[in-house]
Design a protein that fits this description.
The chain has 5 helices and 8 strands. The chain is α+β, with helices and mostly antiparallel strands and about 160 residues long. The two termini are about 30 Å apart.
Length: about 160
């Protein structure tokens, strides 16, 4: 019994270790990229945006993604949880591109193609208005421009769809 308890505690510590960015205070503006990585762990993705570098930190249930933006001097300019209703509201239909969406929100939770409409859809899990487990679906035309967006319930959290 002691071995089982020890194994359970050990497994929980390992899992919680992966949640550095969620439990710790955010990195301070002006920190070096290396200092942010030491504090927050390895990012899930890295991007170049002009002279800036971005580090993507995907988090809890895929509903949180933090983007760390570094200037050309290698110092942290911003640290932001980007999967939010206000942030999604910044996307402009007919103007925002796939690349801009990727640099703003990071890697989508799911992607699919709608052959009839010839749209590619990227879906992001998030807490709509910090309350509802939702998916934001962003539809791109063949040129890679946002044409449509809508939210819906996240089936991952819908007990009726999981047969419970």
């Amino acid at each position: 019994m002691k071995n089982c308890l020890f194994a359970l505690v050990w497994a929980m510590l390992i899992l919680l270790g992966g949640c550095k960015t969620l439990n710790a205070p955010p990195p301070a503006i002006g920190m070096s990229e290396q200092a942010v990585i030491e504090k927050s762990g390895e990012p899930s993705k890295r991007y170049q945006d002009g002279n800036d570098r971005l580090l993507e930190y995907s988090g809890y249930w895929g509903q949180q993604t933090y983007m760390a933006r570094f200037g050309s001097d290698g110092r942290l300019k911003s640290w932001e949880q980007v999967l939010t209703s206000p942030k999604f509201a910044t996307v402009k239909l007919g103007e925002t591109t796939k690349q801009q969406v990727l640099l703003t929100f990071g890697t989508p939770a799911e992607t699919m193609v709608m052959p009839f409409m010839k749209y590619e859809v990227w879906s992001y899990r998030f807490k709509e208005n910090d309350v509802w487990n939702s998916l934001m679906h962003i539809h791109f035309d063949q040129a890679g421009v946002v044409r449509m967006m809508y939210t819906g319930p996240d089936p991952q959290f819908d007990d009726t769809r999981r047969g419970r």
